Amino acid sequence: MLSFLILALAGLAAGALNAVAGGGTFLSFPALVWTGVPPITANATATLAALPGYLSSAWAFRHELRHKGPMALRTILIAAVAGGFLGALLLLITPEKLFAGVVPWLLLLATAAFAFGPMLLKALQRSGRTMGAVSAFALLLAVTIYGGYFNGGLGIMLLAALGLIGFTDLHAMNGLKNLVSAVLSLVSVVTYAVAGLIDWQAVLVLGIASAVGGYLGAHLSKRITNMALLRGFIIAVGLVMAAVFFVRG
């Protein structure tokens, strides 16, 4: 009963955070581990729980995807499918003990991306720099492989990558970010499911709670006036969770 309550509360909070500013993985993943789900299975389960939010966000931005940019949509989707699959395969061959040791570093990386990503994105947009086609595809593939391996901080990493590639329309970038997140998560989740890595009982509780939290968060976001304070709170949560995993060894 306590595990059910922890997952339900974490799902509500994660769904609300994702709807408002992102960072829900900082709560959903540790909650799964705390309830006894092995880290690799917890990572796969948290990705599946976040998938409905990615899909609905991608649909909401469907009109913005018509904007043309320096990289064709087909090429972006190829990178998303390949990266999601390769990242999931990399997770499958990672020993449980090794992944448990890498988790706090991944949480730190995701927290740093969440903290400094917006500043980096603004700097990239001001510089006006662009990349060659091969370098741009390699960068996008690297970020999507990370997303297939560990979902935390993926959104802001994708925005930074799209800025480096040469996209400037923030609405189109948000649309692409949501679409790429949805596609690579769908591919990786299917791979996880085939390998038997999904905790279906936990994902049912977490997924329903996340959907409710996302709905409430969407309405709550209209009343939040101090986004900097909220972002600071999410960053603090990420740092605390990373510290807890470091202490746990």
How would a textbook summarize the main sheet?
none
Q: By helix and strand content, what is the structural category?
A: mainly alpha
State the distance separating the first and last CA atoms: 27 Å
Count the helices. How many? 10
Shape: globular
Report mean pLDDT, rounded to a whole number: 84
Number of domains: 1
Low-confidence stretches: none
What is the H/E string?
Answer: HHHHHHHHHH
Question: Could you walk me through the main structural features you see in this protein, from its secondary elements to its overall organization?
Answer:
With 249 residues, this protein is mostly helical. It has one domain (2-248). The chain has ten helices and no strands. The protein has helices spanning 2-20, 25-34, 39-60, 73-92, 96-127, 133-149, 154-165, 170-194, 200-220, 227-248. It starts with a helix and ends with a helix. The mean pLDDT is 84. Keywords: Cell membrane, Membrane, Signal, Transmembrane, Transmembrane helix, Transport. The chain crosses the membrane at residues 42-61, 73-93, 99-121, 133-149, 179-198, 204-221, 228-247. It is found in: Cell membrane. Belongs to the 4-toluene sulfonate uptake permease (TSUP) (TC 2.A.102) family.
Keywords:
single chain, 249 residues, mainly alpha, 0% strand, globular
Short description:
Keywords: Cell membrane, Membrane, Signal, Transmembrane, Transmembrane helix, Transport. With 249 residues, this protein is mostly helical.
